[in-house]
Amino acid sequence: MQSVIRICFALSILSIVPACQKKKLSNTPEMGVAAKSEAAIKEADSGVSSPNTKGLAVGPEKEAFMCEQGEVVIRQIEKTNFLDLFHLLCDNKGTTQRFKDLVASAYDGKNEAKVTLISSASDEMFNTRLIVGFAMKAPLGDPAQFFALKAHDVLLNGLRSNRSEMIAKVESRKTFPGRRSIEEIIINYSLSKSEGGALFDTRRTEFNTYLLDEARTDVTISLEEMLDVEKSKSYSGFRGIVLGLQAANNETYLVFLNDMFIKNRIDPLRLQRTLLALNGEMQRVMFPLFTKAK
């Protein structure tokens, strides 16, 4: 499952939105480092159709297991600040329509790499909150097939698109660090250029992946959380959640949600265009790792 962690952390770097509406943000100061506002999440999920049984990605049993046991694990490891994000994908009825929609548009190496805007808000103090989701469909029979891959190497070489540049470096890696984690990775992200303009946006995060059942490797959950928030000049917080599911026909789905709080950004639209371009480039560069593992 180490490979699942590596592919997931690489993708969770990029939170992308096509637009950012101006409005007062409820989490203060700077929209709240912990990002725990239940009201904000409910607002983000407004207008989403009720869960249904059509278009299930991996079958009802596996999705029901993920939704039930996923919440159990999140509570056991005392990461309840992630439950609001988890509930955007799962509720007491199973996977939500949002989950199904993300899976339906999953990037498979041939179609367009899409990202869904779930929530976007800015305030007069140049703070921006973005919640986005996306999915990828890998030609792998089980997420564990990523065990030997080092997906972060792609990002160490840098991503360049639309006169923008981003790089990520792994600071440390621990196998079975405790509290049910399979592996813990500390990652440093740096966005150095945005449409030709110099930036100094940096972020340090902790990324952990968990099995929902020690006897099963077909369903995983990964949680990423920003460290040293008080030291950051670019971000007031970041949370990411990734669900890995084995599907039929030797395929694996990876479903992502990212909740990002950006501060001191006078021109958020330029950064959004930058992240869009880099995310598309990253998926195109990353996908060959999937095929190598076949």
Describe the structure concisely for a colleague.
This protein has 294 residues and is α+β, with helices and mostly antiparallel strands. Helices cover 27% and strands 36% of the residues.
What can you see in these coordinates?
The chain is of the alpha+beta class and about 290 residues long. Strand 9 and strand 10 form a beta hairpin. The strands form two sheets. A nine-stranded antiparallel β-sheet has the order 3-4-11-10-9-8-7-6-5, with helices on both faces. Strands 1-2 form a two-stranded antiparallel sheet.
Provide the descriptors you would attach to this structure in a database record.
single chain; 294 residues; alpha+beta; two-stranded antiparallel sheet; 11 strands; 36% strand; globular
